[in-house]
Design goal:
- There is one protein chain.
- The protein has about 70 residues and is mainly beta.
- The protein has one helix at about 15-20, and strands at about 30-35, 40-45.
Length: about 70
């Protein structure tokens, strides 16, 4: 695990090894998620890249009779 420092302008630098592994480049959009006491940066993906990512997901959901 690597440590970063928050600058006086509240900026952080993503370590080189992480940038290379995730193939981050200038201009890439990241979603910022706060979860309890941590911050997560998730690379945003265009919707067309997500196509087929849920293949095999069980969509058989029991429904109430009035919802059929």
């Amino acid at each position: 695990m690597q440590t970063v420092t928050v600058s006086p302008k509240l900026q952080v630098v993503i370590p080189l090894a992480v940038r290379q592994h995730l193939k981050l480049a200038p201009g890439v959009k990241l979603q910022v998620v706060q979860f309890e006491n941590r911050i997560e940066f998730i690379p945003a993906q265009p919707a067309n890249q997500l196509r087929g990512s849920l293949r095999g997901l069980d969509t058989d959901v029991p429904r109430e009779e009035d919802r059929l």
